[in-house]
Design goal:
2 helices; 28% helix; disordered N terminus
Length: 71
Amino acid sequence: YNNSIGGCMLRIAICCGEGFASGFLAKRLDAQRAKLGLKDKCSFIFIPFVQLYGRQNEVDIAFLMAHVVNS
């Protein structure tokens, strides 16, 4: 992870099974990021849980929705 001092942002994936909950949350977090002036500090994307292993190089942190963790 390279912080914003180095010019890179923290890339955060929001993951769930089919994408409804995580896609919604990623959009909401991205909107708040813009409102708070954090566009150059972090980004939020949706990645389906089943694709996370293959796409892990795209993110710095993966957040799993509770229903994925508990299933």
